Amino acid sequence: MINLSYEDIIGRIIAEKRVSQEEIELKIKEKINKFTDLITKEGAAHIVANEYGVKLVKEFEKKDIKINKLIPGYNNVDVTGKVVKLYGIREFNKENRQGKVANFLIGDESGITRVVLWDTNHIKLIEDGSITEGKNLKLKNCYVKENNGYNEVHVGNRGEISFEVDRDVIVNNIVAKVTKKINELKSGDNVEVYGHVVQAFEPRSYRACSECNKKVIDKCLEHENATVKDVPILNIYLDDGSANIRVVAFRENADEILKNCGTFNESLGKFLAISGRVVKNEMFERIELIANNVREGDYKDALQVLNS
Q: What is the mean pLDDT of residues 176-193?
């Protein structure tokens, strides 16, 4: 998560706050359990360090960073890339506050990441067609957050979107994912899999903090001024003939599955290509795929992989 080892992070906390290693490791274990193992111990240590007020990440000043070098906690960064996929614009009305949020994927030579827009002036660039798939962009004064194990670039009201890019950005899709058969998957893989939907569960949602994306009941204890949003979640089983795996899709990816499948009741038998991160569900002793991108599957491409 950051360029510090697990031991280094613990050492920094002990040095600055004079607390015991046992206390720190107990808090880290609690975080890992809270996130159901959807976070590394280094990531959990990073969160605990922030709760202690230990700053592990320095802010950047106008530095253009490659996507694969982005780290949660970075602020005031610039990112140049090409729009890979546009998602729909969502409207929200929470606690007497109305607004919109938009998401899209952006890529460069090093990988692909999600971009989140909150400012209405930025969202208008999607609404009026200025931001389209294949467009080169420079995002300025952004901040980086982690959501469900993935980095996100957030462009707030202090951020800027520029179309003045002096080159055509080449997107390296190979870096973003490796295609595998389901029976070859292991925890920690970032992969793309093909398969048919063989089981689907009713879509549901949970309430989460708009700032940190943590699940909440009434409000976030860490961000009292943040709004509470409903996050859609969809679970399906995907089968490629070698094995099947449970896929967990949040937000736009849940919507994308339903869009490709027509309706929830029509989802069985649909052929999809889903990329994401493989995690271990300790409670059920199985691996699961947390979806990061969903598209309609191509049989020709899939056969090349499955028959290799």
A: 83
Q: Are 46 and 2 in contact (CB under 8 A)?
A: yes
Residue 65 confidence (pLDDT) above 80: yes
Q: Which domain holds residue 91?
A: 63-174
Buried b (16+ CB within 10 A) or exposed e, 181-191: bbeebeeebbb
Question: Is residue 57 a part of any domain in this protein?
Answer: no
* CA distance linking residue 231 with residue 233, whole number of Å: 6
From start to end of 184-267, where are the E strands? 190-200, 204-209, 228-239, 244-250
Shared domain check, 181 and 170: no
For residue 136, give every residue at least 6 positions away whose Cβ sits within 8 Å of its Cβ, in sequence order, or none: 80, 81, 82, 163, 165, 167, 168, 169
Give the C-alpha distances (Å, rounded to integers) separating 142 from 65, 89, 189, 269: 11, 19, 28, 41
pLDDT value of position 59: 46
User: Which amino acid, 56?
Assistant: L
Residue 89 neighbours by CB distance under 10 Å: 14
**What's residue 63's pLDDT?**
63
Q: Strand 63-64 to strand 77-94: parallel, antiparallel, or no bridges (unpaired)?
A: parallel
- Give, for 22, the enclosing helix (H) or strand (E): helix 21-34
Report the predicted TM-score, pTM, of the whole model to 2 decimal places: 0.51
Report how far residue 106's alpha carbon sits from residue 254's, in angstroms, rounded to the nearest whole number: 19
